[in-house]
Amino acid sequence: MVFFNTCGPNEAMVVSGCFHARPALVSGGRIFVWPVFQKLQRISLNTMTLNVESPRVYTRHGVPISVTGIAQVKIQGQNQEMLHAACQQFLGKSAEQTRHIALETLEGHQRAIMGTMTVEEIYRDRKKFSKSVFEVASSDLVNMGISIVSYTIKDIRDEEGYLHALGMSRTAQVKRDARIGEAEAKRDSGIKEAIAEEARLKAKYENDTQIAKAKRDFELKKAGYDIEVQTKNATSQMAYNLQAAVTKQKIKEEEMQIKVVERGQQIKVQEQEIARRERELEATVRQPAEAEKYRLEKLAEANRNRVILEAEAQSEAIKVKGDAEAFAIEAKAKAEAEQMAKKADAWKEYREAAIVDMVLETMPKIAAEIAAPLSQVNKITMVSNGKGEVGASKVTGEILDIVAKLPKAVEALTGIDISKAMSLSNRV
């Protein structure tokens, strides 16, 4: 959109003018701005690094020192109240002007804190000094909308040599304490070594005495134990021999008992073998014979049933076939009767024409029957006097002569002149 304005997370937009009783603040987002009626301004939220210098500041004991601190500050964009205060203080100013104001504030508080502490406190407890400056400066900068991200001491120095002398004194004191401590340590070490040696020798003698006493007690107890062991061994040997004889007797009895059991087991095995063979005979001979008998009986019964069913089916088929043939014959007879009746009616009306038609249909059949014997002849021997045709044409001519005589034969039988009837038909 043309009137929408956006900004990144490192800056904030301030919109003032119509429709806003209080300026609208947006950090890292977008906002609609009416041109002419509203004004858009931007303020940076970037972190600023400040090098806080405090040269020659007199401490609580009047010793001048210089302190350099490093502070990271930024305008707080997440808190609306702090951002509003920052806008009142720095809106329209450059980042360098904002940085200068924050730096002056931190320098003033750093100098004030230095004046309330000694050189030793500042030098030895820098963490406490940094914390004090951080807490005091934060209260003022927060009112401006600026938060201190971090603050630490970078350097402490002086031009009078106070820190050097303080270091030399402390170094000498530490060296003295180190020499005294070393001497005391050596003395204590010697005393402790003598006491330890005395205790070692005493412990050694007591230990040797205890060893000799323990050795004597061991020898006495060992002799007593040896007597007991030998006695026990003799008793054990006699008991062993007796127990061995008893055990051998028991073994023999057990062996006899085992043989008896084995004999009984063999008898049982033989009985089981006999029973097994009987069952095998039953399974391999009797049961298969009974099964075969049962199978043959079932096959005979099934064959008998099959023959009966086939006979019944054949009888039924013959009956059905007879009924069908009777029906067909009856239908054929009816059809032929109707045909004959129609032919009779036709002959009554067209007697001569019908006879001619019948003769004409029959003549090819008659010719075929006349020529049929010739198709069965393998060889023909013809005798000729040299006059007329000879060969196949002779045979064909004779057949045609026979066919040509048919009209005369029909006229003699029926009284109808076929040649005349055919010529009349052609004229029509």
From TrEMBL:
Gene3D superfamilies: Band 7 domain. Keywords: Membrane. SUPFAM superfamilies: Band 7/SPFH domain. Its main location: membrane. The keyword Membrane applies. GO terms for molecular function: protease binding. It is found in: Membrane. Residues 86-268 form the Band domain. GO terms for cellular component: cytoplasmic vesicle; flotillin complex; plasma membrane. GO terms for biological process: positive regulation of cell junction assembly; positive regulation of cell-cell adhesion mediated by cadherin; positive regulation of endocytosis; protein localization to plasma membrane; regulation of receptor internalization. It holds the Pfam family Flot. Belongs to the band 7/mec-2 family. Flotillin subfamily. This is Band 7 domain-containing protein. It comes from Nematostella vectensis.
